[in-house]
Specification:
Elements lengths: L1 E5 L9 H15 L3 E8 L7 E4 L2 E7 L2 E3 L2 E3 L3 H10 L3 E6 L4 H10 L4 E5 L9 H20 L2 E4 L2 H5 L11 E3 L11 H11 L7 E5 L8 H14 L4 E5 L9 H17 L2 E5 L3 H7 L5 E4 L10 H7 L5 E4 L6 H6 L2 E4 L4 H13 L8 H8 L1 H18 L1
Parallel strand pairs: 1-2, 1-7, 2-4, 7-8, 8-9, 9-10, 11-12, 11-14, 12-13, 14-15, 15-16
Antiparallel strand pairs: 3-4, 5-6
Helix pairs in contact: 1-14, 2-3, 3-4, 6-9, 7-12
Length: about 375
């Protein structure tokens, strides 16, 4: 099968959406499919076209950037070329270009599947409100044109005003999650480099530094944790500098974070490779996902942590709460409540030994190949209808 995957940002950009798309594309390729990822060349230093892990990546030049989106006049022409070369089109939303690509695919007789990752919530402001409105309109047009929609969980679908409109052609698939095995010497090296053998508990946060991630909630909860555990510290893995669209948010929190850095209670690690993450998770005591809105739909990092036996504290948001609820590996706390977050951190630290799961079964459930099989069945069904 020839599969075209279309999204605004692809690797090396890091987000839950790009990681999902990359894992799925690689799984398709390993299963013998011809996979093309069409995306934007948001960074001019990136190759116009290249092969990455068996996946052909085509990047379309960008004329300008607006907030977290891009303007790319060449996108439509490239889409026509790539759609003609493929059997089925998968669109990752939110994506401004989605309705145009979906329309072209339908006109060219190709089935269209939308994978809806999350709602878009930009920071306050008149311009961002306008962008949010435009994206909502675009998403709805794309859904009307699509043959089928996929999202992560039924919980998220049930609480999404967008997805609830398209129940008759919507199916939830659990997301693809995988990590390489952790090498003992790498785990030990990480511990020595980051003093996790001296400072406990270690509170992990693995994400981009973005407004919807709730970093400020953890900052407000941390003093209470430090009262009980003066040696506690946060290790933040993920992009924290020059995050697209998040400069104002970072500036707002920088002084508070610097205070904790000076105390030795906070450390930024930057983006970590999959192998580095495999060494990072065993050094945690717990992972926090204090997300604030439906821009977060699941939190893949929760499953990564659980695969290493690490419990999680997650916000009580649709979709985000499901990993903890499904696998009984942590606690769910009210959204934006630092007191509840601090209490949960202290409880998990005191009772860490009671949180256990079948890691092998978890790995099978979220294996990218298993998710790819679900998509293959859907694609095959749509192609037969065509």
């Amino acid at each position: 099968m020839r599969i075209l995957s279309v999204l605004t940002y692809y690797r090396p950009h890091t987000s839950g959406l790009t990681i999902y798309a990359e894992r799925l594309a690689r799984a398709f390729a390993r299963r013998g499919h011809q996979v093309t990822v069409m995306t934007t060349r948001y960074d001019k230093t990136l190759a116009r076209e290249e092969m990455m892990d068996g996946v052909r990546v085509v990047r379309v030049p960008v004329m300008m950037r607006i907030s977290k989106g891009v303007i790319s006049p060449a996108f439509v022409l490239e889409a026509v070329k790539q759609i003609r070369r493929n059997d089925v089109v998968q669109l990752h939303l939110p994506q401004f270009e989605a309705p145009g690509v979906a329309l072209l695919a339908r006109l060219l007789g190709r089935p269209v599947v939308l994978t809806y990752h999350c709602d878009l919530h930009l920071p306050p402001g008149i311009f961002n409100r306008l962008v949010n409105l435009v994206v909502k309109v675009q998403n709805n047009l794309a859904a009307l044109l699509a043959n089928h929609l996929v999202t992560y969980t039924q919980d998220y679908a049930d609480h999404s005003s967008y997805l609830s409109r398209y129940r008759r052609k919507l199916t939830p698939f659990l997301p693809p999650v995988e990590l390489p095995p952790a090498e003992k010497n790498q785990v030990e090296t990480f511990a020595n480099n980051n003093q996790t053998n001296l400072k406990r508990p270690v509170i992990g946060m693995v994400t981009r530094f973005a407004a919807e991630k709730g970093v400020e909630v953890l900052l407000e909860a941390l003093p209470e944790v430090l009262k009980a555990y003066p040696a506690a510290h946060v290790l933040f893995a993920g992009q924290y500098q020059n995050v697209i669209g998040e400069k104002e948010y970072a500036n707002r929190l920088v002084q508070r974070i610097q205070g904790f850095e000076e105390m030795g209670a906070w450390k930024f690690l930057g983006n970590l490779s999959q192998q580095q993450l495999a060494a990072f998770y065993p050094n945690m005591d717990l992972l926090v996902v204090p997300s604030l809105n439906s821009t977060e739909a699941f939190g893949l990092v929760q499953v990564e942590a659980m695969m290493n036996g690490i419990p999680c504290v997650a916000s009580d948001l649709p979709g985000v709460r499901r990993p903890v609820q499904m696998h009984a590996m942590g606690k769910v706390v009210p959204v934006g409540n630092p007191t509840a977050l601090a209490e949960a951190i202290l409880e998990l630290t005191a009772e860490k030994g009671k949180y256990k799961c079948d890691r092998t079964a978890l790995a099978r459930l979220y294996a990218p190949e298993a998710v790819a099989v679900e998509y293959e069945r859907l694609f095959t069904k749509l192609l037969k209808k065509k």
